[in-house]
Amino acid sequence: MMKQKEPPIQLYQGELLRFTTAGSVDDGKSTLIGRLLYDSKSIFEDQLDAIKTASQRRGEEGINLALLTDGLRAEREQGITIDVAYRYFATPKRKFIIADTPGHIQYTRNMVTGASTANVALILIDARKGIVEQTRRHAFIASLLQIPHLVICINKMDLVNYSHEVYAQIKSEFKHFSSKLDVKDVHFIPISALKGDNVVHRSKRMPWYEGPTLMYYLENVHIASDHNLIDCRFPVQYVIRPNTDAYHDYRGYAGRVAGGIFKKGDEVMLLPSGFTTRIARIDTADGEVPTAFPPMSVTILLEDDFDLSRGDMIVREHNTPAISQDIEAMICWFNPRPLQARGKYALMHTTQEVRCMVKEIRYKLDINTLHRNLEDKTIGMNDIARIRLRTTKPLFYDPYRQNRNTGSLILIDEHTHETVAAGMIIE
Amino acid sequence: MTHYQLNHLQELEAESIFVIREVASQFENPVILFSGGKDSILLTHLARKAFWPARIPFPLLHIDTGHNFPETIEFRDRLVAQLGVKLIVGSVEEAINRGVVQEEKGYNASRNYLQTAVLLEELEKGKFDAALGGGRRDEEKARAKERFFSHRDEFGQWDPKNQRPELWNLFNGRKHYGEHFRVFPISNWTELDVWTYLMLEGIELPSLYFVHERSCIVRDGVILAASPYLPLKPGERPKRMRVRFRTIGDMTCTGAIESDADTIEKIVAEIATTRIAERGGRADDHRSETAMEDRKKEGYF
Fold first, then answer.
1. Is residue A4 part of a domain?
2. Same-domain pairing of A95 and A116
3. Under an 8 A CB cutoff, do B138 and A88 touch?
4. Residues A111 and A147 grouped into a single domain
5. What is the span of the domain harbouring residue A357?
6. ipTM rounded to 2 decimals
7. Which DSSP category does A259 fall into?
8. pLDDT greater than 80 at residue A67
9. In chain B, whose CA is at the least distance from the CA of A242?
């Protein structure tokens, strides 16, 4: 891990916060992102000039901030967003990565992708329309993917005369609906992305709102406990054996901590063998470190000589993950070719690659109504389903709710090699 | 900040190291695309960290247009010697002589575009199944949608509409025979992140990045280094200017900026306050609004 050098300046002290935005074409998502970039001075002059010219060419009034986020040629031609795009900005407090997901085509697939690494989900509601089908879908996916924090931006407040009543009504409606979901931390902010109210600057037009601006929230929301620091999980990614004179007997297990805090001297258990030993040392290229925690990439050296390889896992003896070949998971299907009942797929989980068979499709979930459909079990593109899998080798896993790193998997078509599904392990 | 929390550069470093180790695990014959620019220097530095105390298990591949700054080449050779890795050089000059590609004509002629064919040829020749590059998503609009593991068909082409979804830390590197992957471990770094990190780590950089006096011409608002490879338009006269480069590409198309930054600390301060995007000085991107996307689809870096 990087050395900490003095003097620490603001440029590198901040944490990294990843958030995802979701919205449909008209609810102002692109404008909001444009506003965050513009008001935080993250847009360069020449980029601004380019979109000014493009706005004029399209005969639009003023600067269309939405143009900043349209990346590919097809998107600019059709005025839509077809894939997840990543945007970056920083303030003196934090660095931000936005996973900007489109609102319509292949919506679920892209939202799930963007949500998989996010700390915060930002959901936009048009104040004039209130909660619509898409709001429910966004919130459901945020809960399915266990995004730790949810911010509901009630946008276009300028078009409802900055009405407190409208805001309060939508807020209570959302709370009623979200009580059925598995979301922990929900926050509401009334904004106008177009006019800039409560995005970066506090609005003078909504004195009834006493909460933070969106930017203040993003800069200050507590994310240190978004990682699981309790259950020690270290999937071995790569074995480092230098075979040089200086490091003749060096055998290091390289990987990224997936959960818990590892310390030098800790007694650990190795999976699948079940042998126990101690951590001799935790190495990085910058020297030894006393502890390793998520999401650090380190190299662990053990006191005894065991032959671990990629896919094995280092854990604690009295806190082991589930070890099984029978997996229950919620999946989101990504491919035009539907899920094959009793079909065989390649499966990636932590650093393990195995084969699996679909033993049972339990139900398909209607993500608008949360209704469990036990009859129609055709799982096509963008469908969510609960399935049971049997793997060729045991997986070492935790429920996704407990650990996003050891509870997630992807399914791969063995013939086309495409990633066809994302899975969240239930048990 | 609590004890068990990384700052953003430490987190980016951890992410990049994870991706680089994943390449070593999933592919048989990876290669690092090395241009001599700061991003590929950072990438190489991170690869060193990923496998320490072992050597980087991949060779470096440099596509030499023949129009490189001499400073770049000197720097490259020194770094390769330090790391003890193998260097492969693909020569555009030689490809022109063999008639594989044709030199562009005119005042803005650039060999940038010709690199693609030579790169694909080298990847095929070396049977490389993964090519690690220093591309970043903040560089350009088309790159904002690039994956860490970016699948290329047997013609080396990128299909932006049919990319594999990439979730969590699970990178799918499976492919058919003859296909390969481009891998971008520093996807999530911004220009400022790169510079700040290079400063904190004390990493050596080519002298071109620091301000120096050189003979330049100003063409369409872009400051270009005067060189035998850049034919002058009527009325154009080289003049001495104090400049530095923000990116390093060919001498014919890499724009310089006027600056006072002679140390990396000053560069970081300059980048932190600058109001012009990094690739704003790249004449190759100015050719059209989708210049980068078009080149990428064909197999550019």
1. no
2. yes
3. yes
4. yes
5. 322-425
6. 0.90
7. B
8. no
9. B54
- Identify the residue with better confidence: A382 or A235: A235
**Token pair for A307:** 């032959």
Q: B168 and A310: CB-CB below 8 Å?
A: no
Nearest CB to B17: which of A90, A297, A408?
Answer: A297
* A101 and A197, same domain (yes or no): yes
Q: What percent of chain B has pLDDT over 90?
A: 45
Contact check, Cβ <8 Å, B192/A412: no
Are A255 and A393 within one domain?
Answer: no
**Best residue in B2, B4, B162, B168 for a mutation probing chain A (most A CBs within 10 Å):** B168
B217-262 per-position pLDDT tens digit: 888 888 888 888 888 888 888 899 999 988 887 777 788 888 888 9
Which distant-in-sequence residues (6+ apart) come within 8 Å of A197 by Cβ? Answer: A157, A158, A162, A190, A191, A203, A205, A206
Q: Which residue of B has its CA nearest to A101?
A: B145
* A154 & A194 share domain: yes
Mutate to test the interface with B, among A86, A284, A406 (most CBs of B within 10 A): A86
- Same domain for A220 and A261, yes or no, is no
Contact B93, B64 (CB under 8 A): yes
Q: Is residue A1 part of a domain?
A: no
Q: How far is CA A417 from CA A3, A340, B92, B171, B172, in A?
A: 39, 15, 34, 12, 8
Contacts of A71 in chain B (CB under 8 A): 141-142, 144-145, 293
Query: Considering the domain boundaries, does residue A2 fall inside one?
Result: no
CA atoms within 13 A of residue A34's CA, in its CB half-sphere: 20
pLDDT interval class at A84 (50, 70, 90) = confident
Alpha helices in A96-159 (DSSP H): 107-115, 133-144
Closest CB to B145 among A15, A72, A254: A72
**A270 in the same domain as A372:** no
Whole-angstrom Cα distance, residue A339 to residue A344?
10
The residue among B237, B286, B273, B278 whose CA lies nearest residue B112 is B286
Average pLDDT of chain A?
A: 88
Chain segment A285-344, per-residue pLDDT in tens: 999 999 999 999 999 999 998 889 999 999 999 999 999 999 999 999 999 999 999 999
Asked whether the beta carbons of residue B7 and residue A14 sit closer than 8 angstroms, the reply is yes
Nearest-CB residue to B160 (from A72, A97, A348):
A72
- Give the number of A-B residue pairs with CB atoms closer than 8 Å: 201
CB contact under 8 Å between B277 and A44, yes or no, is: yes
Which two structure tokens, joined as six digits, stand for A14?
């901040």
Chain B environment of A112 (Cβ under 8 Å): 165, 167
Same domain as A61, residue A117: yes
A88–B188: do the CB atoms touch at under 8 Å? yes
End of a domain among A266, A285, A315? A315
pLDDT tens per residue, range A128-158: 999 988 888 889 989 999 999 999 999 999 9
* Chain A residue nearest residue B297, CA to CA: A72
Residues A77 and A66: beta-carbon distance below 8 Å: no
